[in-house]
Amino acid sequence: MIGKITGGSDRRSGAAIGDERRVLPRPLRRVVRFAVSLATGRIDIPRHTGTFATFGFFAAVGLYGMSLGGHGHEVAQATTAAVGFAIEDVRVSGNDQTSEIDILQLLGLDGTTSLVALDVDAARRKLSELPWVEYAEVRKVYPRTIEVMLKERAAFAIWQHGSELSLIEKNGSVIAPLKDNKFASLPLFVGRDAEKTAAQLAEEMNGWPELASRVRAYVRVSSRRWDLHLDNGIVLKLPEEGISKALALVARLEKEERVLERDIAAVDLRLNDRTTIQLTSAAAERRQEAVEERTKALKKAGQS
Are 184 and 129 in contact (CB under 8 A)? Predict the structure, then answer.
């Protein structure tokens, strides 16, 4: 009896194992059930489903082809602009020196540009390439507006290099060529490397505002020191080091001797232990004549 019971149990176990082998995985069961239901007519397919599926297939193929051909952006722009998202208003702020026309041309806005398809990051990068723009921000305001906010660079001085005149920032970076007299009141720095140390010299001159107001040009000499050209033609030759001390000496000489009002060409301050005054050619001639007259007078007095 025990043997029969055991044998029957084995047969049932074998049948169960056979049934488990014929069971499909769960995802495939649904597919098979749907296929069987579709074949037996238990699922009602709406009319025109095939037509819509065909159009959808061709549309997908078309979009894929346009994507491969690089025309996806143009199609998206044209489509979204046609349904009411064309950019019609551009609000610009912070543009003291940058023209709005330049901004519109750079962004390529022609009245048909789509707000949806506009690449804000690319627009920001393009605007940052404009000469005066330090930083740009572009924001979409749906449905038809973009806001452009600029932070422009500040002109510190004019730099003359050769025959070219350029506007520079305080750090010496060139902004743009000088094209009009709008910035004529800015200080003029002349010479190679003058733009690199212009701010340092300007800071030194802040302690002597009366003297600074008379400077017409700061000329860099051999990339080592400065000459200050004053409004009356006098040149102050500053040393490489100790500029503040030299300027203090000039201020004292002007206060006590009115040296800058005299007929001189230059004041040489390059040496720490002496100051040399160079006369103009006319003043030198008058001095020479005066010396000769004095010599003649001394000779005449000696003979008598």
Answer: no
The partner residues of 145 in beta bridges, in order of sequence, read 89, 141
Nearest to 204 by CA among 240, 257, 163: 240
Q: Count other C-beta atoms under 10 Å from residue 254's C-beta.
A: 16
Token code pair at residue 173 = 């970076």
Which letter does DSSP use for residue 114 in this model? B
Q: Is 228 helix (H, G, I), strand (E, B) or coil?
A: strand
pTM: 0.68
Among 78, 208, 74, 80, which residue's Cα sits nearest to residue 143? 80
Q: Parallel, antiparallel, or unpaired for β 164-168 and 174-177? A: antiparallel
- Using CA atoms, how far apart are residues 258 and 250, in angstroms rounded to an integer? 10
Contact 197, 241 (CB under 8 A): no
CB of 169 closer than 8 Å to CB of 156? yes
Task: Choose among 152, 117, 154: nearest CA to 137.
Answer: 152
Q: In this structure, what DSSP letter does residue 154 have?
A: P
Q: Which of 208, 206, 184, 188 is nearest to 198 (CA)?
A: 188
Instruction: Round the average pLDDT of the chain to a whole number and report it.
Output: 81
Q: Are 173 and 155 in contact (CB under 8 A)?
A: no
User: Hey, what are 14's tokens?
Assistant: 């074998």
Cα-atom radius of gyration of the chain, to the nearest Å?
A: 44
Residue 10: strand, helix, or coil: helix
Burial, 136: exposed, middle or buried (Cβ in 10 Å; 0-12, 13-18, 19+)?
buried
> Whole-angstrom Cα distance, residue 62 to residue 226?
70
Q: According to the model, what pLDDT value does residue 301 have? A: 74
DSSP state of 24: P
Task: Label the pairing between strands 235-237 and 225-230.
Answer: antiparallel
Q: Give the side-chain half-sphere CA count within 13 A for 191.
A: 18
For 262-304, give the DSSP string. SSEEEEE--STT--EEEEPHHHHHHHHHHHHHHHHHHHHHHH-
Query: Residue 9 — very low, low, confident or very high, per pLDDT cuts 50/70/90?
Result: very low
